Amino acid sequence: MAIEDDVLVIGGGLAGTTAALAAAQRDVQVRLVSAKQSTLRHASGLIDVLGYTPDGDGPLVDPFAALEGLPDGHPYERVGSEAVREALAFFDGIAGEAYAGSHTDANALVPTHGGTVKPTARYPVATAAGLASDDRDTVLVGFETLPDFEAPLAAAHLEAAGAPFAARGVTVRFPGIVRDDAKITRYAHLLDRDETLATATGESTARAALVETVRGHLQDETRIGFPAILGDDHADEVRADLADRLGVDVFEVPMGPPSLPGMRLADLLYDALEDAGVRVTTGVPVVDYESAADGTDADGSERIARVIVDRNGAAVPHRADQYVLATGGLVGKGVESERQRVFEPIFDCHVPHPTDRYDWFVDDVFGDHPYAQFGLPVDRELRPLDADDGPEFSNLRAAGAVLGGYDFAAEKSGSGVSLATGYVAGQRAGTEAGR
Amino acid sequence: MSDAEQPTDDGVPGDDEFEPIQVFPEAEEMDLRPGADDCYKCSTCDTNCPVAEVDDEFPGPKFQGPEQWRLKRQDDQDIDDSVMKCSNCMRCDSACPSDVPLSQMHNTARGEYVEEQMNKFSREYVRNRILANYRRLAPLGSMFPRTTNFVMGLSATQWLGEKVLGITGEREFPEFATETFREWWAARGGAQVQSEDKRIAYFHGCYSNYNTPEVAKALVHVYEHFGYEIMVPDQHCSGTPMFANGMLEDARRSAETNVRELAAAIEDGADIVASCSSCSMSLRQEYPELFDFDGTEDVAANTWDAVEYLRVHEDLEGELAGASVGDEFDDFAYHAPCHARNQGLDGQTTELLAAIDGVDAHDVGDSCSGISGTYGWKAENYETSMEIGSEMFDHMEASEAKTGLTECPTCSMQMEHGTGYEITHTLEVLEAALVGTETAPQ
């Protein structure tokens, strides 16, 4: 026996959750297995599609216009630009009012915690008032105990980057936080619950105390930006409350990991999975697979019979008709390397790479490193291809950063590729399993 | 013996040509360096820590694990006493994207702190030793269960517990059953089903033996329904409360007994199943991380959660499809214990109960219950424990179900304490669906 479903998605990030949700649109039972908690907790929460071309041109105003010019093998080229649009519309349907940006094809320019500006297609509503294309003067507030966001530096960077407004940064103490390395969840929890605190002027609540701390720093700006720690479960309420008391728009600046906007996005997607009846198993890795005993399919490719999930040494078989591999790239461990080779650890799918490891990188730190594009080549069905360009397996598709042929960090295309390929892989898997 | 000692090259076996140069001397005791080196400081563990979220004093798992380990390389550096505030929920383990063995680091740090820095005559030490060794006291209480329940229920006893020992007076002590599971098992003549090829050894743990034998009996009825021969080997506490209190020597003694007995059962053709998620967690993960008796790995690899085992080895979903439980049970507010979550079992109960007519398990969210075994019993942690649990209490009350469901004994105490709901174990529901409690043999 095995734990049985129709579609099994391996990986709990943006590509995996999207694939599971897309598959679940069909009348099939879907399961998502994630080795660890979703890595969306590291994500900025921004949904980029394409900020720069592979040649480095950009920031792009219209990412969709640039999709047609992408080279063969790029994940967007594989699925086609129409699928990218459909995937974004699918995401918009799930995110509802939590995300903005669907009113236009043009990229929005979102200021980051480093004071750079990131071209992005969708963004959490919490960041909406902070867009760099908005010419209102801005004050950024940092906290002494939160060294990841240096507000005066970020403001100076924004101005140097040519933002069409005056930006100022101030650093204050966050009321109610004493220790130097308080967790971001601690800040969020204080504001979410509006906890009672002792301040210099007597008892107060967390939100009121924060408002009193920053009020004097506002001059004639009409918007104020905080690092993204303004609440977790009740972030909208916290932001609205602060804006109301301060009389100006309040926005969040997306932060590095760990990231509350990423956690909120994870919550949103996992709630959608629950609503869609997708079964979720987290904390245990898929480590191996077994082929179908009756050998190969009509097209000569192998068929996966079941995969093995490892639970502290016990092998737990999981069987499905269709499988989606969305385990991430080199950082997410979907693609691994050792001194002699680069490989995909579960199914040992083909990962093209030079045999000499000195050809995996270039000397210039910020140069075009070949390793950034290491990953699986796929056909237009998103089935991983072997060295002879035939499908590795007839019932396996791949999505997200495990795919090769693109450099998401340079292009700013990570989320969009995950959405588009997750959507297509999930839909195909769901359709085929439902047959 | 543990993950932490694997090579750090993130590689797979069989790569023979690479010969690593030994830069550091061979470790003489447990070497956690590879684990510490795997930490790339993303701080995701910190955002999963239920204690750090509500307690500004607690520096979080990243500090307790890799950072403290590095600090300790200095000879004059003591373990920070904040390690005692860690509740050992082990959520940091499944949060870490880089496989850092955080709870193993916490367990070893806490053990070292208690061994070398804690005053053995302090009230805290005595109290922790008592809480950690519940298994040694339970047989005494269980000898005269009605008297014990009466005395433990007295407000004077609770007051004394708080004043003298620092055990919170806010909670009511769990009642002892009038007949332990093992007494019942002996009285019924042991296994009622004999089988050469379907055999399990049941690790019942302390709580279902002394306090909730109905859970253990449910397991017996369900497994016999599927034709399993059940062995009930001699056993000691799984060690969970001992790890959490840094009593590693006590835990080692218990683990030695358990590994010996369970390894012998495996020799006899049995797989091990446990009904308590912390017991299975302990056998599967903490034993191989902390001990290296003969058979430790073998026991870990052959231990299963009782429900998961049936799911993989029997057509449990098929049997449950269309089964009903009558009027006895209604919908449940289900809480997945942290230690079940860490075994990838958090979705299992809601999935299975959906197949049974007349009941549904509504998940009350992914927050920790806050009690974490002995943690919430300590007077100084009571408030924090209830604050951590408040999210779960809110969700339970918002759910339409008026009965709670979980697989962890202390989560169950906390759920009952925070809401006043009656709390059931999943195996009891399976028993009602598959065997029927009315017709169950004795």
Report what the structure shows.
Chain A: It holds the Pfam family FAD_binding_2. Chain A: InterPro entries: FAD-dep_OxRdtase_2_FAD-bd, FAD-oxidoreductase_2, FAD/NAD-bd_sf, G3P_DH_GlpB_su. Chain A: This is Anaerobic glycerol-3-phosphate dehydrogenase subunit B. Chain A: Residues 6-417 form the FAD-dependent oxidoreductase 2 FAD-binding domain. The complex is a heterodimer of chains A (435) and B (442). Chain A is of the alpha/beta class and 435 residues long. Chain A has two domains: 3-98 and 264-433, 3-Layer(bba) Sandwich (FAD/NAD(P)-binding domain); 113-253, Rossmann fold. Chain A is 27% helix and 22% strand. In chain A, a hairpin with a 5-residue loop joins β5 and β6 (117-120). In chain A, α1 (14-23) packs parallel to α9, α1 runs parallel beside α11 (414-433) and α4 crosses α11 (414-433). Chain A is globular and about 75 Å long. The model of chain A has no long low-confidence stretch (mean pLDDT 94). Chain B is an alpha/beta fold and 442 residues long. Chain B has three domains: 3-116, Fumarate Reductase Iron-sulfur Protein, Chain B, domain 2, CATH 1.10.1060.10; 181-316; 318-434, Rossmann fold (3-Layer(aba) Sandwich), CATH 3.40.50. Chain B has helices at 33-38, 44-48, 50-54, 61-71, 91-95, 102-116, 123-132, 134-143, 145-153, 155-165, 181-187, 207-210, 213-225, 240-244, 248-267, 277-290, 296-301, 306-313, 316-320, 338-341, 348-353, 382-398, 409-419, 426-434, and strands at 199-203, 229-231, 271-274, 303-305, 332-334, 361-363, 403-406, 422-425. In chain B, the strands form two sheets. A four-stranded parallel β-sheet of chain B has the order 2-1-3-4, sandwiched between helices. A four-stranded parallel β-sheet of chain B has the order 6-5-7-8. The radius of gyration of chain B is 22 Å and the shape is globular. The two termini of chain B are 44 Å apart. Residues 1-8 of chain B have low confidence and may be disordered.
